[in-house]
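Retro notes
What went well: the complex prediction finally ran end to end.
Inputs used:
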Amino acid sequence: MWSLSNIAGITQTWLNATFNPTIALWSEFVIVGVLVIALFAVLGLGLVYMERKVAAHIQIRLGPNRVGPMGIFQTTADTVKLIMKEGLTPDGSDHFLFNLAPFVVMIAAMLVLAPIAFAKNFQIWDINIGVLYVSAVSSISVIGILMAGWASNNKYSLLGAMRSGAQIVSYELSVGLSIISIVVLSGSLQLSDIIASQQDGWWIFKGHIPVIIAFVIFIIAVTAETNRAPFDLAEAESELTAGFHTEYSGMKFALFFLAEYINIFIVCAIGATLFFGGWMPLHIGNWQGFNQVMDYIPSSVWFISKTLFLIFLIMWFRWTFPRLRIDQLLNLEWKYLLPISMVNLLLITVMAIMKWHF
Amino acid sequence: MTPGEYIKNIVNGVKSLLTGMKLTGYYFMHPKEIITEQYPETRPVLSERFRGEVVMSHDEKNEHRCTGCTACELACPNGTIKIITKFETSPEGKKKKALDTFIYHLELCTMCNLCIVACPTDAIKMAQNFEHSVYDRNQLTKVLNKPGSKLMEGVE
């Protein structure tokens, strides 16, 4: 059986048999790094294309359809264009911070990828505080955004960055609380344990209505955290002329653009892991026959399809809802999402203690 | 805000969001609804009132209906039309003003339709053609009456 974990295991034993342990470890680092960068490139190209197609179909248009069959090479052509463009650094900007910011955003996105389980036993780093690590590291990207806004020496950029800061700081709370509700149910912070706890059914089915509420709050809050419409006040191309990346061009702009899509992928992967069982196939209680049929579908396919479904959901939001004003944004968080998720967490805790879930 | 209003707010908000998502979801699931016309491959469907350019209609005997009254030239807000008239002598020996050249500057025209409204004899009309791009600007200055054309009988 050629599963991803098998390939990884074979590679590891071969490296250890051929080289001494230090070289084997370092070459594993290099392989993982190359794979992560390759994944980023593929995700960037694929998700931008998907977004444009989804947007077009929602707006009764066709979307890109000229470059290659169905326009699949459109994003590749755009990337080539961006690579050839000049990466301008404005004279009045803080050159060091200006050039550092895109990499901070990018590296923050790269770090969050570590504990995500892409398939059965296929994980870069199965850290025992995975959920905590994810929620801590994912908020580093706001530093990059603030850095970009500040260093650009442009009032629109700074406004966008400040908005982004206020937004991420407030929505982090709701994300945290809805993640904690799953931690309460599964009793572990380790992502592999959380997935294993969904062996007999995903939490969204096992956890009754409170988990569904937690999921809705999670998906709203991560949409805000990734600065996507209807919460894209940091960019707000119609009022702030693209906000914090107004002054960026060429590949530096492309890195911000890429980081946005990588962040969407990551939060959707986390959502899929917590609420939809990650790579776990659809299992219903004790139906042995049904469960075995579901096991034939590879775990990586399950993970990717769940993640893509959540990504589609977030894209659906973007092309349906109008942008919120900054006061509406903060009202939504502090007056609605946060109180509801607190009450909801209490309900879930009671449910977990009384063992009311399936 | 009473607790009742608070909950009502949430329910109304969720309901309106779902209504929006239902419509966009319907469009996503039904590619038949797509209204994009793939222009170079398929000809666009133009409405009858589409205003492409001003043309002068000629019949099969190469006769037009323009008397050279310059009403369209006066009506034009930005000097798109320039009419040069001449005097023709009728068989009875009477001198009569007639159209010599109808100059139309397509590059200045805003397709406002005022000249067509102003024309007392319905000599000019709007055509549906919209592919006006040329390599030289001079080609956009057009003479609308065909060479050798005459005023139609009975048009005063």
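What we learned: The mean pLDDT of chain B is 85.
What to try next: split runs per interface for comparison.
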